[in-house]
Amino acid sequence: NDAMIVCADADLDRAADGAWLGSCMNTGHYCCGTERIYVVEQVYDEFLQRVLDKGKHLRQGQQYGWEEDIGAVFWDRQLAIIEAHVEDARAKGANILMGGRRNPDLPGLYYEPTVITGVDNSMDIMRLETFGPILCIQKVASEDEAIALANDSEFGLNGNVWTRDKDKGYRLAAAIDTGACSVNDMALSYGIPAAPFGGRKSSGLGQVNGKKGLRGYCHEMPIVIDRFGGKMQNAYPYSARSAEGMKKLMDFLWVKTPLGRWLS
Question: 107-111 — which CB contacts under 8 Å span 24+ positions?
Fold first, then answer.
């Protein structure tokens, strides 16, 4: 359920390519795939037209080679989920501008590459993982609104931001509550072995790859060695004097001194 944000200064042709690739790679069966696209209103119409123009040239078929761009859905149960999400969006007022059905020219589990607008977070297709070749495009008033909508999800595995201003791209990417984010590309971090990979929120706990991924397979064991020796202050038998001594020590170390506040 990853989000894509298209800023007003984005390279719209590259962003349109990224939208199709992010949504339809492996027929949408991709955990880092783009499922929600937020476009600022200044460039919404132009971006949408570029997406539709590129979509006309997509090839879907059964040859399993370079002759096709989009393949089949991998499982009939997944196809049922895709169809249910699209029909839920249609029933709630979304506009199906392209696709939105099984491919009538191909036998088997082929769902046409689909472009949907007029979507919002009341629709299953924006809240749940559809896992299909679907582009859901929503117009937003500002980048701040795009960030708020991107974060209004129980999932957070990946995301992407499109802008010619790399500093702004970094700032917006960092504001998305997700495991990783790309600027002017999609899912790049997954292909970098040194980069930790993992999700936020319902997209999982922990990370793989990188140093943090390796540490996940390690057992970290603290071993503490006394440095001072002598009689243990908290040894049996207890007494009011020893208790008062321990209290003063704890106050000194952790509570009532600058050193204690720093240690705390």
Answer: 108/62, 108/72, 109/72, 109/73, 109/74, 109/75, 109/76, 109/79, 110/60, 110/71, 110/72, 110/73, 111/27, 111/73, 111/79, 111/82, 111/83
Cβ-count burial of 264 within 10 angstroms (0-12 exposed, 13-18 middle, 19+ buried)?
A: exposed
Q: Each residue of 117-157: pLDDT tens digit?
A: 999 999 999 999 999 999 999 999 999 999 999 999 998 88
Q: Where are the domains of the chain?
A: 2-212, 222-264
Q: Are strands 182-183 and 200-201 parallel, antiparallel or unpaired?
A: unpaired
2-212: which CATH number, 3.40.309.10, 3.50.50.60, 3.40.50.300, 3.40.50.280?
Answer: 3.40.309.10
**CA–CA separation, 90 and 85 (whole Å):** 9
- The phi, psi pair for 39, rounded to 5°, reads -120, 130
